[in-house]
Amino acid sequence: MYKHLMKTALTLTFAGLANVASGQAPAAAPATGSVAVANPTYISIPMEITVNRPAAEVWKRVGKYCDIGEWLQVACTITQGKDGEFGAVRSIGNEVMVGKTELSYTYTQPVREGRPYNMYHGTLEARPVTATTSKLVYTLVLDNSMLADDAAKQRDIQQRTQQFTRALENMKTLAEGGTLPPPPARGGQKGKQ
Question: What is the rounded CA–CA span in Å between residue 193 and residue 186?
Fold first, then answer.
């Protein structure tokens, strides 16, 4: 069974990569109501920032699972499990922690009924560089095949990169002992948060 699942996963991955290489437009989720995507095209968005603090100190300041609420400047609560433990679910995207190390964690967003599954995963890591400096590395992996065209895919990558670069800058500020400015106004409503 395991070999069959791995073969299927590899077949889907290679099919998606073949479509990207050949320039073919990937297919959207089938009209059958299935959330499975027939020809996924997986992308990764790696981002990083240097922090003038040791990795362990950085992780202590910004690495708890719901610390995302502070550095993304949105509300976050743990809805299932305990912060920092496998299987913990946070309110942001109903994200489930699926992996962790001493200085990192990986999360995914679950399948949602009626929406094509994009296999969204994120990993945040504090990586030692020297005894007094580190890097925060944030990597997103997802399937963007359900977006309309190449222009929409590029806009999505740019939006995600911009959002998480801001998050990394906020984490750096917090880890280095600074204070965050108020969050930007949402939806064009100045002054409201």
Answer: 7
d(CA 58, CA 177): 10
Q: Is 186 exposed, middle or buried (0-12, 13-18, 19+ CB in 10 A)?
A: exposed
> Residue 181: is its pLDDT beyond 60?
yes
How many CA atoms are closer than 13 Å to the CA of 24, on its beta-carbon side?
12
In tens, the pLDDT along 106-122 reads: 999 999 888 889 999 99
Could you tell me the two tokens for 82? 């305990």
CA distance 63 to 54: 13
- Domains of the chain, with CATH numbers? 38-175 (3.30.530.20)
Can you read off the two tokens belonging to residue 114? 């009626």
